[in-house]
Write a structure and sequence with these properties.
single chain, alpha/beta, Purple Acid Phosphatase, chain A, domain 2, 3 domains, six-stranded mixed beta sheet, five-stranded mixed beta sheet, 31% helix, 28% strand, elongated
């Protein structure tokens, strides 16, 4: 903003002295009242309004009164300072990098130094993955389509919270888990579960969130800033996660004619999950048998008589999941007989029935990190596939269990 000249300030001071009203003085000068008020404040700062209390834009800091013997005022001393500004708030979408703030007793900003940065690693993260996989754009190996499939069946593969990149140490947590273990376990389980699945014509692979343990190289959860135990360099983990998912998609393509891939942001990886979807969409962009759905907090699909939805589970209770689906999918809700909602986040199998909606959580293949081990969270580990019939709803279910650490 250009600095006001002394002449502008003097005109504001003269107009205020003549009209005794900010509104009338502003009108006389042809200025908006807010602009005139700013001019008047600057005039007060430069001593053009004298020193009688209280000057526009200033507040009384201290008053000292000297009284005579009769109790009357002999003299008075008044100290003024610039009035406080608006209440200090961190700008939306920013986080503090450094701050030295001086506020008054009402919490209003007085002076200080603030340095912020965007609370997002998305530009760097997505840019890095895009550059890495640009050479592979549209280069997906064309897996031959299966010769025989059942057109009335849909295979749903929910994958909940694998936390690829997490580091767990057996002496501390009871089980070892690192990037290599996570990648190999996910591929082994996926291979087994795809082999067990019915020959459905279509398949939906739903990443229910927290595919990655960390969102970026800061190694903290984006919202609560909890410190995370991470194995390996950030980019190494991201690349491993993409390669594992590509392998799972190719396995599914060998069993099913069409494969939809859904990536739902988790509380650990909201932006890393988006980058994962971006890398996969580039890789499979020329493969008409693969559909990569862009990440969103909620996903819905109707298959025949079944309407199902999915979310990570950190933002909605089971009751609100059911309500959201009923409201968001009014037409499909009324036209279907079976309603099903899938989520992760809690790392265990759990089924709630809300009205006629089966709200179901799925367990993870990951072992416990130090936080979960110390907090006493325990659950079975597994990967599942659920087959839906176009007319009859859920038709079958297969499961691959992971033995507890003591039996491996």
């Amino acid at each position: 903003m250009q600095s006001l000249s002394d002449e502008q300030c003097r005109r504001a001071a003269a107009a205020q002295a003549e009209h005794r009203s900010e509104r009338k003085a502003a009108a006389a000068l042809g200025l908006p009242r807010s602009t005139f008020k700013l001019h008047l404040h600057r005039a007060a700062e430069r001593g053009m309004l004298g020193f009688k209390p209280v000057l526009p834009g200033f507040a009384i800091k201290q008053i000292a009164t000297n009284r005579n013997g009769d109790g009357g005022t002999k003299s008075e001393w008044i100290q003024q300072r610039k009035e406080s500004g608006d209440k200090f708030e961190i700008p939306s979408g920013q986080i503090l990098k450094g701050i030295s703030a001086y506020v008054d007793d009402e919490g209003r900003w007085r002076s200080g130094w603030i340095k912020t940065r965007t609370d997002s690693a998305a530009p760097e993260l997505i840019g890095a993955l895009k550059a890495e996989f640009e050479a592979y754009r549209g280069r997906a190996h064309i897996v031959p389509a299966p010769r025989r499939t059942e057109r009335d069946l849909l295979a749903v593969y929910p994958i909940a919270d694998p936390h690829i990149g997490m580091l767990s140490w057996r002496p501390q947590t009871g089980a070892d888990y690192d990037l290599k273990i996570a990648s190999e376990r996910m591929l082994d389980c996926a291979s087994s579960i795809v082999a067990k699945a019915d020959r459905a014509r279509e398949a939906t692979i739903i990443n229910l969130g927290d595919w990655y343990h960390a969102n970026d190289q800061r190694n903290v959860t984006p919202k609560s800033k909890h410190q995370l135990d991470v194995d390996g360099r950030w980019f190494k983990v991201q690349r491993a996660g993409v390669r594992v998912f590509r392998s799972i998609i190719d396995m599914a393509l060998a069993k099913h004619e069409r494969v939809e891939v859904v990536n739902i942001p988790g509380n650990h990886d909201p932006e890393a999950g988006a980058a994962l979807a971006l890398a996969l969409s580039g890789f499979y962009e020329r493969n008409r048998r693969v559909k990569i759905t862009f990440p969103a907090d909620l996903y819905y699909r109707r298959f025949g008589n079944t309407l199902f939805g999915a979310a990570h589970g950190d933002k909605l209770t089971p009751g609100r999941m059911a309500m959201a689906m009923a409201v968001d999918q009014r037409e499909a809700w009324g036209a279907t007989a079976y309603h099903w909602f899938l989520f992760g986040h809690i790392h265990k199998d759990k089924l709630d029935t809300i009205g006629d909606v089966r709200v179901e959580a799925f367990s993870t293949i990951a072992d416990k990190d130090n936080h979960a081990a110390g907090g006493g969270w325990r659950s079975a580990q597994a990967l599942q596939v659920i087959t839906l019939h176009r007319r009859n709803g859920e038709d079958s279910r297969q499961r691959v269990n992971i033995p507890p650490p003591s039996m491996r």
